[in-house]
Write a structure and sequence with these properties.
The complex is a heterodimer of chains A (about 220) and B (about 100).
Chain A: H1 3-6, H2 23-38, H3 44-55, H4 59-71, H5 73-81, H6 83-89, E1 100-105, E2 110-115, H7 124-127, H8 132-135, H9 137-142, H10 147-153, E3 163-168, E4 173-178, H11 190-194, H12 199-203, H13 211-217
Parallel strand pairs in A: 1-4, 2-3
Helix pairs in contact in A: 4-5, 5-6
Chain B: E1 14-17, E2 36-46, H1 49-52, E3 62-70, H2 71-74, E4 85-91, E5 95-97
Antiparallel strand pairs in B: 1-2, 1-5, 2-3, 3-4
Classes of the chains: A mainly alpha (about 220), B mainly beta (about 100).
Amino acid sequence: MSSADQHNGHDGHDGHNHGNHAGYYSRRAEAIQALLIEKGICTLDDILRMADQIDSRTPEDGARIVARAWVDPEYKQRLLADPVSAIQELGYNLPETAPRLRVLENTENVHHLGVCTLCSCFPRAVIGRPPDWYKGLAYRSRVVVDPRGVMREFNTELDESVEVRVMDSSADMRYLVLPKRPDGSEGMSEEELASLVTLESMIGVTHAKSPSAAARQA
Amino acid sequence: MASSEPVKFRPGDRVTVRVENPPTHYRTPLYVQGKTGLVNSFWGVFPNPESLAYGGAGTPKQPLYRVEFAQKDLWDNYKGRGTDKLMIDIYQHWLETAD
């Protein structure tokens, strides 16, 4: 990385500020924020509002959306056709500035998984911040080359007959994976179903939890 | 009024990604450059990120497509199934009609 990174080590350039080891990146973010405001590109309110919006979303919100799609086939069709409106039905209003959204449905025959090889594009407006590994170089560089191998490291084996589709979100679209409804979940309530939906399954590196695995964890 | 590049491709068209490494910001990863795939979806026109990144207006706006590639066309010795795919969104000015 850059020389600025190296200066963030233990060579004493931090001087008296040794408690603040987020150091380089948080200072850089603060500097960029100050410049954006100073140049009138956006206001502090804009930035705080956007951060609040992202912080207000969690994987549980995505799980509600997925569970609804599992129990209501017509809702699922609306979600695939027009995700923003379908999500709005459940009370989530995506900000106008949010990138466009598509939903990728995993089935018996096709398994999608998402990545952003260039940075960390993620459906933040729907399910909040990505996990750290999603932003890491290891995942970003390996999942496009060997998606089945990476999934195995998440303890997920795909049948040979399943077609894998890696979605590299590199531009103005964001992608939410709709995991396959697990076998053995027939008869579960929508709320119980939502508890099977994990963040990893909405990225696509795993399946949703099986009811038996969820029961063991409970 | 914001100008847009005319839409050149349709789903099903075979396209090849241009090979370029400009010293500026761009959104076309090296691993798909020079590769040929199929236009899967057309997403509309969007401000060009290569202009936005430097305070520009993003005009002319660029049509954006989802392009799908066979994994075996991207990587030698790909370990998965022959029909496995990689999909990625690419702006039109990076795409050419495949021979």
